[in-house]
Each structure stands twice: as C-alpha cells, then as structure tokens.
UniProtKB/TrEMBL annotation, chains A, B:
Listed GO MF terms: serine-type carboxypeptidase activity
Similarity comment text for this entry: Belongs to the peptidase S10 family.
EC number assigned by the record: 3.4.16.-
Signal peptide range: 1-25
Entries under SUPFAM superfamilies matching the protein: alpha/beta-Hydrolases
Function: Probable carboxypeptidase.
Pfam families: Peptidase_S10
Cell compartment(s), UniProt: Secreted
Protein's recorded name: Carboxypeptidase
Keywords: Carboxypeptidase, Disulfide bond, Glycoprotein, Hydrolase, Protease, Secreted, Signal
Coarse class of the protein's main subcellular location: secreted
Cellular component GO terms, alphabetical: extracellular region
Gene Ontology BP annotations: proteolysis
Organism: Theobroma cacao (Cacao)
Amino acid sequence: MALSKFALCLWLCTSMFLLCTQIFSLELDPQTRALQEADRVISLPSQLPMQVLFRQYSGYVTVDKSNEKALFYWFFEATSKPAQKPLILWLNGGPGCSSVGSGAAQEIGPFLVKEGPTLKFNKYAWNKGMYLIVFTANLLFLDSPAGVGFSYSNKSLNVQGDNITALDSYAFLQNWFKRFPQYKSHEFYIAGESYAGHYVPQLADAIFDENKKSAKENYINLKGFIIGNPFLDYETDRRGMYDYAWGHGLISDALYQSIKAKCDFSSQILTQECWDQIFKYNSLYEMIDMFSLYTPTCALNAPSSSGKKLAARSNTVRVSGLFHMIPSAGHDPCTANYATEYFNRPDVQQALHANVTKVSRPYILCNSEVGNAWKNSTFSLLPTITKLINGGLRVWLFSGDTDGRLPVTSTRYTLNKLGLNIIEDWTPWYSHREVGGWTVTYEGLTFITVRGAGHQVPMFAPQQSLQIITHFLANKKLPSLAF
Amino acid sequence: MALSKFALCLWLCTSMFLLCTQIFSLELDPQTRALQEADRVISLPSQLPMQVLFRQYSGYVTVDKSNEKALFYWFFEATSKPAQKPLILWLNGGPGCSSVGSGAAQEIGPFLVKEGPTLKFNKYAWNKGMYLIVFTANLLFLDSPAGVGFSYSNKSLNVQGDNITALDSYAFLQNWFKRFPQYKSHEFYIAGESYAGHYVPQLADAIFDENKKSAKENYINLKGFIIGNPFLDYETDRRGMYDYAWGHGLISDALYQSIKAKCDFSSQILTQECWDQIFKYNSLYEMIDMFSLYTPTCALNAPSSSGKKLAARSNTVRVSGLFHMIPSAGHDPCTANYATEYFNRPDVQQALHANVTKVSRPYILCNSEVGNAWKNSTFSLLPTITKLINGGLRVWLFSGDTDGRLPVTSTRYTLNKLGLNIIEDWTPWYSHREVGGWTVTYEGLTFITVRGAGHQVPMFAPQQSLQIITHFLANKKLPSLAF
C-alpha cells in the first residue's frame, strides 16, 4: 500500500515535471520567438493535404560576417513531445551535397520528393517513433559548407576544406542554439553518411574541445554520433573499394591485379600509373549506379548507345518500366532529379525562406565545384574517432552492403585498422522476420551492416534505418532474433 | 533483274524446303504416333484458360530394365515452327533436384507455379522467341537420376553418382529419340545449373564419345552446352564461396581467417578442423537465402524466434508483406512450396502421366536422400570441358552474381584454372538500357555474369536469361551497348 502511494506520488511528480518542461519551452523571449516564427515553414508546395502534426523551420544562420557567409538549415520537431526528445543534426557528404535536398528530401525527413515533383509523407521519418519506442528525435538538416545547397558566401570560397567546414558548422550550431534556445539542453547527436565520415567526427571533435574550454553558455550536450557508409580513411576505403569491385564481379582480373600492383594506398600521394588504372575503373560509374549495385540507373540521366541523352525522350521512357528488370523494392532511381527540380521552384524557395539573396546559380543537389576546390581532406579520421570514443561519446557506424563507393569491405578494413577489442563478434540482427544485416560490438563502437542497402541506406532500407537510429538513441543492441 | 529472279527462285526453294520439312516431320509411323499421343498433355489443372499454342508431352522412358529404372520427362515444343528449332535438354542439380518441378515450373518452362498453387504463363519461357529473334527452342526437362522428382527405380539405388547419372541420361536420350524420332536430327544443346555443372558436361562427354563409336542411328546432333552458376571444381568452388561470403559481409573476419588457415581446398579430403569451421559457416543457411542474398526467405519455412514454424500462422502472415523489406522485383520466395504442393496433386500427376506406379513417397522437389547417398562426384570437370571445347562444342557459362552458394568469385577462379586465352575481356552487356552484367570471351568459351540475379538465374532475371539463351543458340555476342 505504501509502495502504491509512493508510485502514485512519483507519477504525479514526473507528470508535473514533464508539464513544466513543456511550459518552460514555450517561455521564450519575444525577440527569440519572433526570430523563430520568421523561420517557421507554414506549408510546402505540393504538400499532401494531410495535417502536419509537428512544427518545421528553415532559414539562414550567419557563420562568418566578414565573408558574408550564411548556412541554410531545415529543422523538424519530433512528431510527439519535442521538448523531451533529443536533437539530431544530419549531414550529407560529397563534399558538396545538400543535406536539405538529399538527407531531408530523399532519406530521413518527414517529406520525401517523388515524381512530379511532388511530396509524400515518409512513413519512416526519423522524427517519428517506431514499435512504440519513444526515441523519436528533433531533426536538423544543414547545408554545409557554404556553396552547398542553399548555403552561400558573398566572398570567394577558395579556402573550402575539412577544417573550415567543421569551424563553420560549429559556429552555425552556436548561433542556431541562440535562435532555438529551448533545444540547447537536449541530448545532441550528429548523424550523416559518406563524406560526412569526415564532417561528423570533425564537428564532434570541435564541440568536444570547445565544450571543455568554453563558457557554460556555449556548452553543447553532445552524446555521440552515427555515420552510414562513412569515408574515414583513404588507405582502407580505397583498398576496400577495389577488392569489393572484384569480388562483386564488376571489374576484370587484369584491371584488379593491375590496381593492386601499381597502387600503394597507404601513401598520401598516388602515382600516375596508379591513377591510370583508377581512371579505367572509374568508367564503371558511367554504366551502373555504383552507390547501389543492383538497382536501375535513372533513365533521365543515362546516355543512350548513340550518345544522346535519354532526357530528350523522357516523355516516352517511363522510369517505372525499368523496375521489373532488377530488384528495386519500388526505389525510383530518378529521385535526385525530382529533388533538384523541386528545390529550384521559386514557390518552394519562398516557403522555405531559401535563396533570399537571389544568387545567380541554380540550386544543385551535389555541387561538384565545391568538391573539386576542396583544399584539405584529412587522410585518416581514426585518431579523432579513438579520441572521441575515449572521451565517452557513443559511436556507431553502419554500412549498406550493396554500395560500391564506400563498401562494407572498406569499413571492415577501417575497423581492423582502428584496432578496438571485440566484445561481440558478427551477429545477425533482425528486421522483423528477415536478417537486416550483421552487427559487431567493439569496446566503444558498434558496427552494423544493412543487407541489400546501397550507399544512402535510409533511401534503400528506410524501415531498417529507423530501427537503427531508434536503437542508437536508446543505446540498445539491435534484436538478434526474428520478431 | 537477273539477281531479282535469282532471289525469287531462292526464296521459293527455301519455302518449299521448309514446308517439306514440316510435312515430313508429321510422317511418323502409327506406332510412334500412338506412343507420342499417349504422352501428350492435353491440359493441366489450374492452367489458365488461355489457349496453349504449342504441344507438350510427358511420361516415362525406361533406361534400365533390370533395375526397373524409368526416368520422367516433360517436353514442350517451341511456340512456332518446332520442326525447325533446336532441342534443349534442361537439367537441374542438387544432386536430387527435379528439373520438372524446378527448371520447368519455376524457371524457364512455359507454365510457372504460383501461390494457390496455380499456374501462370511465363512471358520469358525458353520455348518462346524474343526481340523477333527466331531462335526459340523445343524444351525437354528430365528428372535425373532415378529417385529424383518422378523418376524411379524399383531396385536399390545404392550406386547413384556422376557416372550412373550420365549413363542413364544417355540411355534416356536414345530411347526418347526413338519415341520422338522427328527431333533426332535437330541441333541438340544441354543446359542446366548448379550441380548440373557435373551432369551437363558429363552427359555431353558421353554423347561425344558415343557419337564417334556408335552406329549412325544413335548419333545425337550435339552442338554445345550452357550452365548457370555451375559446380565445376571442388577446389575453386569452395575457395570462392568463402571469399565471396567475407567480401559480401556475411561472415566475421575471425571465421574467414580460420577457414583460410585450416582448409586446404586443393585436397580431395578436408580435415576435421576444416570441417569444424565450415559447419560454423553453414549456420548462415539457416538465416538467409544463400542462393539469393538480397531477397527475403519464405516465411512458410522459417522458424520464428520462438522456434515454432511460421507455417502454422501462414493465414495471417502474408508472404507478400515481406516484399517491401528488401529488393525482390516481385519474386515470391515460397515458389518451391507451391511447386511441391502442385506436383503432389493426384490430378496434376494424372495429367502429366506421372507416378503411374504409385510409389509410396511423396513428390519431393529436392530429394536430400539422393544427394546424401551420392557415391562418386568428380573433383574437377575442367579436363572434360577442355576436351569438349577442343572437340568443337559451343560452351557458355553464366553466373547470377548475388548467389552465395556457387558465386561469381568461384567461377572466376575456375575459369582462371581452366587457363583459356582471353579474346575479349570483361565487357558490359546490356539488357535494354541497363547493364545486364559482364561478359568475357575466351577461346572456346563464353562467360556471362547476370547482375543482381541469384543462383536460379532464370527465376530472378527471366528476361536476361531468355536473352542469354537466344544469343547462345544464335552463337552471337550479347549487346555491348544499351538498346
């Protein structure tokens, strides 16, 4: 009886506490409230008429006044009780790819673009729950660095590279938290994929260091990070890519042997005769989607045998007609085209408060100019990862195992090089009745493969990805039995 | 003008010749005609009401009177002008798998089983043409050896193995041609998959040798053979399987290293400590479909986490519900279950003139008793293949590259061991606008990979398979440009 009274009391107190948290979260000063409201996205063109039960914001945050540099973000509150939920920052790679057009609109955001272009609700958005697990999150997408997506600088961008990206992203976060102070105390996680294998640990490192030396008001409650098909180490990532290509029947024995003989991937500078072999390998990218080996390419992009672009006959070539040729699970390989078209629409830009300075260039999903002008790219992120694991951060990596660009083989080599002790080796994990992939638990790091998923894991395996992020946030092992 | 008259004359003569061929083909003696008519399949239970525009036959051919051994066949004439078309014999592997229930009903036959079980027409059946190419074929399926599918012996089968299978299949062919003499002069090809990597070259070898020494009336007009995901060489097939499994992220580094350290695959006898590692590897088969890495398993077979068979709740678990989880292109992983059910139906057996002796055992798609009792299995088929290539036969191999059982890696090792000169190395081939896979032309052998296809290539990539067989029959290279 005493216990029951105690339980009731505890429940009342908890409820009161949660209520207070929500009330306090609304208690923003008028200026902050006005700034937030200015960024509030009320509705989106081609948005389905269903009611949106969460708030969303987007706009610019200045990170460097002298260079008139401003980074663009899109923020979605969790679908339920955002005040109690962690905050995830998602970063796409490239370098040069827009997190808004890629991660938000094609992978994990609540609205996904489709043919039209129009929008559909994402059943597996990361700001939603799953299996009644309450570990939904508030989701922040950042176009980073300047020159990517809607982010810009009115000065020259000839200093782009890993360092400036981390510094600018850190500055963005500090200023964004000033605009959204109600999220400052939330658990904070960074997630991303591909070249964000650099961005994510580098930003985490910047936060980690600044947290120690900065004033309390600049403290960011960083708890960990998670990266899919990450680019972490030039040596192992390159070596693994060619091994994977041979093992998956993509290149000849001759080319493979020649790459192995002529390339020393442990060197920071590759020889010309190595590059000559790599150039031969690169022709693969012109034929199949190396980011997802077994799905069709987009007919709107592919040159025909006569060398003419198929786009010219897009009215007669139905993309859906390709779906029966190779396994695809309904994946539309032209989504990137729809996203590009959607975010170039003036009404979409207006709704998102994007491109307010009316830059002359169109919105580009992956800006190769940014990538080509990259000044510094860290050879290996392994020392940074080791430092951050030792610093107590939660670190998870995952790998869609049908990606040829940053394949599972590469990440396995990378993990071996990292040299952590294995706590539990290579165990299947289940997504309902099917093996979702395999997982290895290291001391301080969890690695997960996603069976049959390409480079952009949430695009190819949305349900499995939501399962992974909810388990990451809950710091729980994925289920090792069918359910 | 003279040329035009000559052309007209040539056309008339050719037409007359073709007409004569057809007329003569109908001129069978009454006894043969009666035997054929006895085997004629008039209709099939659950056959769609569409008109079937080709003739089909099935029944038994005695191969060994002393052992009361009879092999069961199912034969489909080509959909157009069968008298002018080649004859293909298709063999499934195992050892122990029924060509009738597998190859005919799930892969390349004109009727495929589906849920119900019922039948559907196969758009890509190998007795049909494609792209207006006239190289359709007459299709013969054989349950081989006795004990497999509907084939039987009323005596003990304790001498089963490669040798007896080849001899019995040869005897079958001789007797089958006596029943269908109108096909005796046709170009004859053997096709198959998996363990038929043994059956096909061994039968070809038997025919090749017998053709030289036998009387003219026993001559079989063998022109070549084609095998998918073939089991050809114990050393390379085994080695390639584990390499493939590691490279595809299926096994731990530790298990892989342990297999490499403890197994000498060049030896005909593996050590116990090698087998111990292989047993660990084999547990993979309990979790995913190793014959098609990225498709779902059949929920009707899979044990649930609680150890109970899901079959018990098959009414609530719709197999189709799995399709959204991983790429599948509409492939139903329970087809083997439907085929087993279909061929056990008394009305189906009656329609096919099968199980006339009413054996006590049910029809089994893959009879493990046959495989387990196998007495001899040739270590390497490479000498046989070399001999047959030198003998002028057309030899093609193909490999679905998402098969984990006899993977593309294994066949690449095998081909290297075969040591033929390369005429054209690793070229993409196209299935319409998509890369269907890659192909290598050796002196005397063509190798083709099929992108994204599992072990039973025609099941997973039916259109590509029909494309391959039509090009094989026409002895033409697959297209190297999109069309």
